[in-house]
Amino acid sequence: MVTVHLHQLIFHGFHGLYPGEEIIGNDFEVNLDVEYHVKKDKYDSLKHLVNYEEVYEIVKARMAINTPLLEEIADSIIGKIHHRFSNVTRITISIYKLNAPIPHFNGKVGISIDRIFD
């Protein structure tokens, strides 16, 4: 089993339900772990592995699409990665809004989804 980690990816996006979020935007942090089986234990070529650059491009493209709910974004990213890499067995993703529009709040808010594939 191999796990590809992409952590602390920062994107500016226009996701959210609160008034003005679609105009001002916010910074978001994405953390992603993709577990998979390597076919016949071949580590000699990217064709046998989950390419973290391709995974990053999937995340980047999806984070650029304005969406009200972080859960919808995370679910979509999971689906796109699994579609591209059929040998993936588990994907865990967290998306954090770094400057939540909550009065007197200091911190970040976010969601996580953990999906296991048979």
UniProtKB/TrEMBL annotation:
InterPro entries: Dihydroneopterin_aldolase, FolB_dom, GTP-CH-I_C/QueF. Its EC number is 4.1.2.25. Pathway: Cofactor biosynthesis; tetrahydrofolate biosynthesis; 2-amino-4-hydroxy-6-hydroxymethyl-7,8-dihydropteridine diphosphate from 7,8-dihydroneopterin triphosphate: step 3/4. Residues 4-115 form the Dihydroneopterin aldolase/epimerase domain. Keywords: Folate biosynthesis, Lyase. It catalyses: 7,8-dihydroneopterin = 6-hydroxymethyl-7,8-dihydropterin + glycolaldehyde. One of its GO terms (molecular function) is dihydroneopterin aldolase activity. Catalyzes the conversion of 7,8-dihydroneopterin to 6-hydroxymethyl-7,8-dihydropterin. Belongs to the DHNA family. This is 7,8-dihydroneopterin aldolase. It comes from Flavihumibacter fluminis. The gene is folB.
